[in-house]
Every structure is written in C-alpha cells, then in structure tokens.
Amino acid sequence: MDSGLMETFVMGIATEEEVEKVLLLKKQHPEFQDALEQLELDMEALALSMAVPPPIGALEKIENEINEIQLRNKSIQKAPEVDDRFDRAYQERTKQERYIEVESESNQMRINKAWKWVFAAVFILGKVFLATAIYFYLENRQAQEQIKDLKIELKLKTPIK
Amino acid sequence: MFKAVLNVPPAEPKDIRWFYDKYAAMLLGYINGIVKDHQKAEDHLVVILMAFANEFNGEVKDKNYQSTWLQLRQFAQNKLAFASVNSDQPIQKDDQLNLLNDLQKHIFCAIYYQGKSISYLANVLEKEEDEVRNQLKLSIDKMRRARGN
C-alpha cells in the first residue's frame, strides 16, 4: 500500500501489469480494497475542491442536445423499417400488377401483364383472318360455280356451226 | 442514453440532472486545468458530458474503478489528449496544489491533467521511476492530509 501502486492506479496511468496486480490485491486483501476505495473517494473530494461552477444554461444545452440525438437515433432506427416495409409491399403489389402466372409442363413462368393485351389482339386478329379466309373461300367457290354456269350457258347459246 | 431522456420515472437517481449536478463543476474544474481557457473549457464540458452520456449510458463500465468520477475524469483526459496545453503548470486557484513543492506540483499536474506516464516523467526529469512514483504518492498524501483524510 505504500509503494505508490494505488496512486498510479487511481490516476489512470498504471501499466497493464500494475492493473492486474491491483485487481488481484483487491480480491485477496479486503484492507487493500478498503484503502483503494478510500483513495478513490479522496480523489473525488480533491476534484470537488477544484470544481468550477458551470455556466447557466449548460444543463439545458446538454439536455437539448441529448434529446436531439435521441430523436435522430430513433428516426434512423425507424426509417429503414418503414422503407423496408414499404418496399416489400410495393414490390409485392407491382409484381401482382405486372405479372400473371402461367403454368407450363415443366414449371411456372412469369410474364409481363402487358402481354395479356397482345395475346387478346393476336386472338382477335386470328379470328378476323379466319372469318375473312372463310368468307373469301366461299366467295371464290361461288364465283367458280357462276363461271362454270356461265360457260355452260355460253356453250348452249353459241350456235353449232 | 440517460434514463431521464428515456422518460423513465424519476425514482432512478442517475439521470442527467443528477449526473450534471454531481459532476459538472468537478469536470469543468478539471477541464480548466487541461485547456487553461475558461470559454474553451465550457465548450468542452458540454461535448464531454454528452459524449459520456451517449457512450456509457450513465453507467460505470470500467469495473476497475468503483468511482464514476475517476472514469469520467479518464474519459475527459482521453478526449482532451490533443487539447492539453503543455505548459509547466496549469492555471489553478486551488490551494491544494500550493501545498506541493515544485517537483511534486509538476509531477502531479503532468499525471493528473495530461496523463503522462511514470516512465515518461522519469525520463524527462532524469529521475528514477520509483522516485517519481514516490513523489506522486507524497503529493496525494499531502493533499489528503490537508483535507483531514
């Protein structure tokens, strides 16, 4: 206790080896622990005797700063959650809007919802082409029959020389 | 963050006001001894108390020390490592330091305010480490005795 070890320890300049020694002595010898605690209290009392009253308003300044930091930390912690939740919901919604699920033999495939209108247009055009083709086919057949009839008529009307 | 900021009922004594009332004046006196400029010391006081509040949540984390003050002082010393003025003696009105002789005052102030090591001071003062350590102990003992401890 008289070696000056406690003093270097409470002054915060003890080496690692000295700190270990102090901690060991504290455990092993209650009187050492008591003396160390007393020294710590005396250092606090010494600091108190050297105290300088802080300026008026310093506490309010500190409280305001701490509250601001607290609020900033809270908003930083909350913001990613909100963003994350929003992103996930948004992605889910856009996924539903933009894609329809189509089953195939092997596995599922996703295609853009815009293709729905293309498929509808192709289907309608297909029907139109089919109807047109049938119409012209019938028209053509009718025309062929008329030509055939006309030819027969002409043959009958033409005098045999 | 301190309990007061977290709106914990005031039954818990360790809120920022309690902490401020107990340590702000001591800390300002200590910072004054380091930076030797009252205005700067006041600015540092706010910054250090806030940093300590944020970092340590008002709890003593260093189990080596029983005293919150010692931890706060160490914290302030580390924060002000680059702000300390390397003059021979800090400006102190305190009578406690006047109890010490020049060598003791030099050693005590270099360690207390600037955190100089025993080996560094032994080298600078061209003395044995044990002699420096002994002078430190003597200076602390003198001030303790003067206070009736």
From TrEMBL, chain B:
<dbReference type="InterPro" id="IPR013324">
    <property type="entry name" value="RNA_pol_sigma_r3/r4-like"/>
</dbReference>
<protein>
    <submittedName>
        <fullName>Sigma-70 family RNA polymerase sigma factor</fullName>
    </submittedName>
</protein>
